Amino acid sequence: MNSEGITDIQGAIAAIAVSSDELQDIELQVKGPRDPAFEGTPVESMHRFYDDGRTLIGIWECTPGRFPVSKPDSTSTMYFFSGAGSITDENGESHPIIPGSAFVEPEGWRGEWTITETVRKLYVITRGPSADRGRAGG
Question: What is this structure's pTM?
Answer without folding.
Answer: 0.81
